[in-house]
Write a structure and sequence with these properties.
Belongs to the class-I pyridoxal-phosphate-dependent aminotransferase family. The chain is an alpha/beta fold and 366 residues long. Helices cover 40% and strands 15% of the residues. It has 12 helices and 13 strands. It is globular.
Amino acid sequence: MNYETPLFFHVMEYADAADRDVIDMVSGNPDWQPPDALREGLREYADLEPDRFQYPPSEGLLELREEIATRRGVDADRIVVTNGAGEANYLAMARALERDSGDEILLTDPVYPYYPGKTTMLGGTQSYVATDEAGQLDPDDVRAAASAETAAIVVNTPNNPTGAVYPAETMRELVAIAEEVDAVLISDEVYDHYDLSGEFASALEIDSDHRVVTNAVSKSMAVTGVRVGYAVFPPGLVANAKSRHMLVNVATTRPGQYAVLKALRETGPDYYERNRQRLRDRVETFTDALDAAGAEYTSPSGSFYVMARFDGYPGTLENVERLIDEAGVAGMPGEAFGDSRTEWLRFALVTPCVEEAAERLARYFD
């Protein structure tokens, strides 16, 4: 079986090899500081006894799972601590397909490219439901597309790449559809702390044996390299998810879990609000410049991203490479996210150079 390397890596390598300075707006790596308590936790860990550097419990440190459980209103034994949200989504999709209730994974268009890649790796087939211009998903469209062959419906809210935040009614309907066709709704909520609209609704608010919620601290604590995520499974799916996690990864970083636990306990809401405000300011700065460049663009309700369309400049890999060479700005081609946004480019606002990038784009497309 052939696996396609995500275009993210190609674009980043191309930008790194450029003969000029390039502003990286490709990947969602926050440029701001992690919580102080997380740094303190890592320092503390360095001085612990040798036994604390050995294998942790495979499903995650009990104290961390209990902390997450309290915050999310679930039982700790339903939580698997994973190597980021990426593994959490992999485990959820694998469990959905192992239920022998179809081999179709229903995805949105546009889509975060790792979902179709994981579907291929797991032997499933992809089908897509288009979102509207604002990135919102109409449950009626999902219901029309779902069938007895649908093993899972995978959604991401707040959304990458559109910035859409699905309201509570949409989430309730998606869970209901999963129940109707005996599928699993997999809700990737890794950007939940970057809801800029106040409309975010977690799928955990709906009690069901047909939904899995995935998350991580990668984005919320600006530590994509620490690799601590988690999945919340229904009781009937969690045991085999733990077994697969053990066979694939054995366990997740013990020092990282320790530091994340300390940060969860000691980091106040002001940390997250400061970073949301930082993003609001960057969205305004960036979209003002897009206005000056005569571009169409999305106004994100959450996550890190703005999609833009420049007249006569479709979102191809070739055009992204031209933009790197000629404007010094690296974004992602819209074609990487499916068929519906091939005229668009996606920019990640996780760089302190947002204003300079915006000015470069305005000059380039003037």
